[in-house]
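Hey, quick one: can you model this chain's 3D structure?
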Amino acid sequence: MAKKFPIKPVHPERICWGCDKYCPVDALACGNGSERTQHPVELFGEDWEEPILPFKDAASDGRPDD
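Sure thing. Here's the predicted structure for all 66 residues.
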């Protein structure tokens, strides 16, 4: 079973987010060995979980009214 992924970790730079192990940056156990995988908050900012494109209303089908 996968661990629950933290949305807003306190210090994301201290952990590798590449697998379910969440290893410290100085002890990568997944065999990668080169670099740690960054948390999405480091890559995309504080609002990384917000949708990029706005959703259309459920009542509207996107066609102009006739």
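One thing worth noting: Helices lie at 40-44.
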